[in-house]
Amino acid sequence: MGKAARAIIIENGNLLLMLRDKEGQQYYTLVGGQTQEGEDLKVALAREVKEETGLDITSARLVFTEKHALPYNEQYIYLCTVAPHSEVVIQDTSEEGLMNRLGINTHTPLWAHPRAFAGIQFRTPQLHQAILDALQNGFPGSPIELANK
After folding, report:
1. CATH for 3-146?
2. ∠ at Cα 14 (17, 9), nearest 5°?
3. Of 7-11, 34-38, 97-101, 132-136, which gets the smallest average pLDDT?
4. Can you give the residue ranges of every domain in the chain?
5. pTM here?
6. In three state form, how does the secondary structure of the chain look?
7. What pLDDT sits at residue 1?
């Protein structure tokens, strides 16, 4: 089973999300993606965030894990801070940049206020609820494994 690293990035009270249009199905997810063979999770996290947003991670703390049945990945979700930046943009040289240019499985990074986040179609309901709870009550001090429903 593969592993994926995802980032919870909050700035000015807004959460960075990725809007996906995959085979005509639209949903939101966190920025991030699969590790490459032998790649450390935090290295993959930094690489994926850079590719999908142009942002550089300055700190990352594991807050949630999710296990999914094959063929999906184990998800490792980090609360991250990023270096000062201007705009958030998918890098042209990334896989997501190529898919966007081809118009298949498109990716659009965007900022969402927590009230808007509460009402969106998020990829996994258990992670969606965990993030909503953490936005209201604070993120856990040690990682929590989320039950896959």
Report:
1. 3.90.79.10
2. 55
3. 97-101
4. 3-146
5. 0.92
6. CCEEEEEEEEECCEEEEEEEEECCEEEEECEEEECCCCCCHHHHHHHHHHHHHCCCEEEEEEEEEECCCCCCCEEEEEEEEECCCCCCCCCCCCHHHHHHHHCCCEEEEEEECHHHHHCCCECCHHHHHHHHHHHHHCCCCCCEEECCC
7. 65
Integer Cα distance of 149 and 90 in angstroms: 31
Tokens read off for 73: 């990945």
Confidence of residue 15 (pLDDT cuts 50, 70, 90): very high
Sign of CA dihedral 66, 78, 138, 90: negative
